[in-house]
Amino acid sequence: MDMNKDLVAASATPLVLAILAEGDSYGYAIIKRVAELSGGRLQWTDGMLYPVLHRLERQGCVAAKWSASESGRRRKYYRITKEGRAQLAAQREQWRAVDGTLRGIWMRACTV
Amino acid sequence: MHGMTTFADQPIEDQIAQWRAYLRRRQAVDGPDVEELEGHLRDQLAALTEAGLGADEAFLIAVKRMGNLDALSREFARAHSERLWKQLVVAPEADTPANTSRTEMLVVLSLAVAAALAVKVPALFGLPLSPNDEPPPFYFRNASLFVLPLLTVYFLWKRGSGVASGLWLALPFAAGAVFANVFPFRTGSDTQRLTALHLPIALWLAVGFAYVRSRWFAAAGRMDFVRFSGELAIYYVLIALGGGVVTAFTFMMFSAIDMNPDWFVAGWLIPCGAAGAIIVGSWLVEAKQSVIENMAPVLTRLFTPLFTVLLLAFLATMVWTGNPINVKREVLIGFDLLLAVVVGLVLYAASARDPQAPPDFFDGLQLLLVVSALVVDGVALAAIAARISEFGFTPNRVAALGENLILLVNLARSAWLYARFLRHRGSFAALERWQIAYLPVYAEWAALVVVVFPPVFGYR
C-alpha cells in the first residue's frame, strides 16, 4: 500500500513515543518494531527516523544516552521522559478523535 | 546476529567507509549522527546478509532504505538549524579524524603567531614602527615576505608535500627577498613603490603552486586557487572590519584612563594583526570551503549589473559633455583597477558557472560589461598614450600602460569568446580555459616590474 507522505510523517511522532513507552530502544530496533506493528504497511525511509528522534530529544520528550551494544560498537539508546508520556497521551487523544470520526462515517457507509 | 562490528568482506568495509565519508561532508550531520546512522547501516547489513543476501546486494538495499542523503541532510538541518552556524567556526575536516583538525589548528596558530612576530623582527635591527613617522620603506617592499612564505609552509604541510617541493618553492621567495632589497632605491622613488605593489602579485603564484601542487597544470586546480583567492579576500575584509572595531575600542578605553595606546596600535596591533589575519583567513577558507563558496558568485551577480550601468553612464556622460580624460597618476591607476575589477567579475562568474549550462541573460550582461569596459579603457588608453608621447616615459606610466595592455588583451579575447558562446558557436569552457591559461601572465608581468624596472629606470 502506498501511504500518503503527510500521514506517515504525522504518525511518526506518536508511533516513536509509543514504541519507546514499551521500553528503551535504539534507531534500528524502532524501525523494525514499526514494520512489525504495521505488518509492513508503514514504510519509513530509515534515515528519516533520526531527525524525528533528535527533534523529540530537543523538545525533551525523549532522553538519549550512548552505551555499548552487544557488538561493542557504541549505540545511542532513547528513553521516553515524563514530558514524552504527556505528549503521547495528548497525541493519543487527537488520533482517537480523528479515528473515531472517520470510523463513525465509514461504519455508516457500510451499513447503508 | 545483527550488530556484528565488522564484516569479513574488505570491499564492504570500503563501501561503508565511502558512504561515511560522503555523509560527513554534510554540514547538518555531525560526527555522532554519522556514527548513529552508520550503526544503523551495519545492523541492517548484518540482518540482510543473515537472511541470505550477498554482501553487495545487502549494501545496495541497506543504503537505499537509509534514503536519499540530500533529503536526509535537509531533515537534519531542519532539526538542528543552529549547526549550520556552528560549522562556520569549528569544522572537523571531511575525512580526517578530529585530532588532525586540532593539530591543524595548532599549526595554523603557530604560523599566524610566527607571521605576526616576523613583522617585529626588523625592529630588532633598528627599523622600528613608530606611530609618529611613516613606516620605513623596508616594510612596504618586504610586506609579502613576512607572510606569504609562512602561508606556503601551511599549504605544503596541509597537502603533505615533500621537502623537495618545499625547497623549490623557497626559490621564488629568496629571489623576491633579493630583488626587494639589493637595489639602491632613492628615497620616495617610484620604482620602489612599484616593487612594493608588484612583489606580492608575483609571489602569489608561488603560493598557488603550493596550494594546488601538481594540479597546477589541470584547469580545475587553478580555478580552485582562483576561488581560494577570492574567498580569502572576503574573509580578510571581514577580519579587518573586526580588527577596526578592536582598534577603536583600544583607543576609547585606554584614552579613558589617560593612557595613549598609539605605540601599541601602530607598532603591534595593526601590523601583527594584518600579517596573522592572512594565515587565519586562509585556514578559514580551507576549513569552511562550502560556506563562503557562494559568496564570490553572489557578489559577482550583484556587482556585474552595477558596474555595467556605471560604465555606460560614464561613456554617455563623456559623449554628451565632450569632457576629455584628465590624465594624472591616480587616473592611470584608477583605470587599471577598473579593468582588474571587470576581469575579476568575469573570472568569478566563470568560476561559479556550470560550463554545461546554455547561455542566459546574465551571460549577455557579462558581455555588455566587458565590451563597455573595453570602450572606456580604449578612451583612457588613448589619453595615457598622448600623455606619454608628450612628457616621456616614467616607471609609473610604463607599469600602468603594461598592465592596461595585459588586461585589455584578456578582456578583448573574453568578449570574443563570450560573443561566440552567446551565438552558440563555442562553449563556455573555452572562456574558462582562456581565463585560466592567462593567470600566470599577471604574475610574470609583476615579476618583470620587480626585477627589470628599477635598474632600467635608474632607481628613480
Which features would summarize this protein structure in a list?
heterodimer; A: 112 residues; alpha+beta; three-stranded antiparallel beta sheet; B: 460 residues; 17 helices; 79% helix; globular
Write up this protein.
The complex is a heterodimer of chains A (112) and B (460). By secondary structure, chain A is of the alpha+beta class. Chain A has 4 helices and 3 strands, in the order αβααββα. Chain A has helices spanning 5-22, 27-38, 49-59, 82-111, and strands at 25-26, 62-68, 74-80. Chain A has a 3-stranded antiparallel β-sheet. With 460 residues, chain B is an all-alpha fold. In chain B, α2 packs across α3 (55-66), α10 (219-256) packs antiparallel against α11 and α14 (329-352) packs antiparallel against α15 (361-391).
- Number of separate helices of chain A: 4
Provide the succession of SSEs of chain A. HEHHEEH
Overall number of strands of chain A: 3
Structural class, from helix and strand content of chain A?
Answer: alpha+beta
Class per helix and strand makeup of chain B: mainly alpha
Low-confidence stretches of chain A: none
| Proportion of residues in helical segments of chain A | 55-70%
Largest interface, counted with CB-CB under 8 A? Answer: A-B, 23 and 27 residues
Please tell me the overall pLDDT of chain A.
88
Mean pLDDT across residues of chain B: 83
